[in-house]
Amino acid sequence: MVTLTLVVNPNVTSSETITICQGQLPYTWNGQSLTQAGAHTATLKTQAGCDSVVTLTLVVNPNVTSSETITICQGQLPYTWNGQSLTQAGAHTATLKTQAGCDSVVTLTLVVNPNVTSSETITICQGQLPYTWNGQSLTQAGAHTATLKTQAGCDSW
Q1: Where are the domains of the chain?
Q2: What is the number of other CB atoms lying within 10 angstroms of the CB of residue 53?
Q3: How much is the pTM?
Q4: Is there a contact between 67 and 110 (Cβ–Cβ < 8 Å)?
Q5: What Å distances lie between residue 118 and 113, 132, 135, 142, 154, CA to CA?
Q6: 3-class SS of residue 48
Q7: 133 or 41: which carries more pLDDT confidence?
Q8: Radius of gyration of the chain from Cα atoms?
Q9: pLDDT (tens digit, 9 = 90+) per residue, 16-69?
């Protein structure tokens, strides 16, 4: 008489979720090069030779880009932005981290309005004193200054 003892090993299934940043693509998992988010499966063999199906849910957090424009007056230079000391107009970038740890690239377009200076010479007769200029009552000859604001709000003198 022959007796057979049949042992049936179960197939094994498992799943995991991994979250990465977009800049980490392609992501290598179980010999596969994954290029996008979603559910991915791999069929492996257990020590007993049975199938083991593993499912990976890959979550890909996007890199974030944003831009802003700031207008300042020349007298406000250097301008501090995200820890950088900016000394001129133009496009400036900073790479920050999101709460998920992914790159966030911010671009600042810095517009610098100039301060305006001008001078003029006015000749009057003694009998025309006091002379009113830019809200000042002038009683004697000499150099006088007034600080005004341009239409952009910058100093003009």
Answers
A1: 12-61, 64-113, 126-156
A2: 13
A3: 0.61
A4: no
A5: 16, 18, 17, 16, 14
A6: coil
A7: 41
A8: 36
A9: 999 999 999 999 999 999 999 999 999 998 888 888 999 999 999 998 999 999
